[in-house]
Amino acid sequence: MATLAGKTILIIGGSSGIGYGVAKASLLSRASKVIIASSSKAKVEAALVRLKGDITVAGSTVEGTASGEVVDVKDSKNVKELLEHVGEIDHLVLTSGDPVRTFFPDMDLDANKDIFDVRFWGGFTAAQAAKIRPGGSITLTIGQILVKPKKGWSLTSGVLGAVDSLTRGLAVDLAPIRVNVISPGLVKTEFLDGFPTEMRGELEKHANALLVQHIGQPDELAEAYLFCMKCQYITGQRIEVDGGGKFI
Ligand SMILES: NC(=O)c1ccc[n+]([C@@H]2O[C@H](COP(=O)([O-])OP(=O)(O)OC[C@H]3O[C@@H](n4cnc5c(N)ncnc54)[C@H](OP(=O)(O)O)[C@@H]3O)[C@@H](O)[C@H]2O)c1
């Protein structure tokens, strides 16, 4: 059974939600070094404290270490500096995502063209600048809206489609480094706090309707990211971890 023993993993977006789950699962899977990065220094520091506690509670012997970095993926210079600073890594995971913007038809296009900055340009720049060791991987993140858009989400689904395509392009460009993308359905994270109030009321209803009858947990999503890191025979793929959400 493959583990992450001896591996260094950088998780951009690791200070909360799914990325935090990947950081915890990586340490429990024997990663040597886990680096979590995001734009808020306070969030990175709080996540490191929480991580220490969670790993202790998990009761396993964790050999690896966790550290934090501050990066704003909207700033390509900042992203390149981070990748230069961390040096060689085995796996790069991107779960960084800014709050959802739902709007149509009254949206101000000029004020929203930056919607590609975090998920698309952030992912592209990090993939371009990362120094990944042989056998390593990059895992990006999109969302179920790609295949099942909701009313008002067309721009968001467009961004996710761009990242989905980017994944296959990068898998070819960076081969033999493997590049995959995870597409989560609804997951219980801080991200949901940014949803419009009326939508949050719908979440419980949605959870009950899902085939698995519960909202996803970050730990459940982390399994897919670990698989993409460990399995040497997967690249250019999208894995949908959505509790069967696309069937309802
Ligand atoms: N939760 C869901 O139901 C769900 C469903 C489908 C898809 N997704 C996608 O999955 C990804 C992760 O979601 P999540 O639920 O884990 O969200 P989350 O808990 O809000 O985590 C997002 C992470 O991204 C970081 N981030 C945001 N802007 C950044 C920036 N400019 N530079 C660097 N880091 C930045 C945040 O930290 P800072 O604030 O410190 O920067 C945080 O660590 C997102 O792309 C989201 O769209 C989530």
TrEMBL record:
UniProt entry keywords in alphabetical sequence: NADP, Oxidoreductase
Q: Does the keyword Cytoplasm apply?
A: no
Keyword Oxidoreductase in the entry? The reply is yes
Entry's Gene Ontology molecular function annotations: oxidoreductase activity
Q: Which protein family is named in the record?
A: Belongs to the short-chain dehydrogenases/reductases (SDR) family.
Matching PANTHER family, A to Z? Answer: DIHYDROANTICAPSIN 7-DEHYDROGENASE
Instruction: Tell me what this protein is called.
Output: NAD-binding protein
**Species per Swiss-Prot/TrEMBL record:** Sanghuangporus baumii
